[in-house]
Design a protein that fits this description.
By secondary structure, the chain is α+β, with helices and mostly antiparallel strands. It has 6 helices and 9 strands; from the N terminus they run βββαββααβαββαβα. The strands form 2 sheets. Strands 1-2-5-4-3-6 form a 6-stranded antiparallel sheet. It has a 3-stranded mixed sheet with strand order 7-8-9, sandwiched between helices. Strand 7 and strand 8 form a beta hairpin. Helix 4 runs antiparallel to helix 5.
Length: 254
Amino acid sequence: GETLLNHTQSYPYPYQASSSASCSMATQRRSIVVETSDTPNPDSLRYFSMELSFLPEGQSMDMPNSGHGYKSPLAVILFQLEGVKALYFGDEYITVTKEKEADWAEVSTLVKEAIAQFADSGVSILSAEGEEEILPLNWDTDPAADDSEVILAIKELLASRIRPMVQGDGGNVRFIGFDEADGMVFVMLEGACKSCPSSGQTLKFGIERMLMHWIPEVTEVQEVDQEFATDYKRQQNEAKEKKDKEDAATEKKD
């Protein structure tokens, strides 16, 4: 949009240049037009404006329920609206997921008004806690020092081919892990994709098919939740620490 400007940290306007990712949606004083676009999920809509960017470029935040509202003053306002179930903040849009019984005609009017009024207020979109928790878009698919060739290939395909496809539908996919023993890839869906009736098709015919086609070691892709993801990461870290200790002990003996 015409008001998108680059500041010293290359955050898209309306962010204020600062030493942190402090995000303010203040714009010139005029009416802000908030538009919507459909997603494959009938209960999710994307909200965007040519005059607004919501997060620094390449960052996102998934808020699957109101318990995550503390991360953003705007999220607190949106979660207070009747019918709003979940939020996903991208850099250029917000995906709102409504309760199944809620009517979009009512919910959408309230959401548009809330976003426009918040933008006029000049308040930072993220709280201090939100700024601490926000993650770069590709934190899960950036190469790690101990990644195998297969994991590197999975991460590359997810980041370059699969993630843009899923983001186009108002959601995201996160790489959680790969079980080399049975060829299982674990992923977590975010935003519109999480509760979408066609999420099974996205997983099987989009993500799984592409990974299996290009990477023969992959046999299946399984969607997991946050609890599984946290537990899986903990187990992986514990196994790595144990192996590092064993390797260190072996080196001492040598």
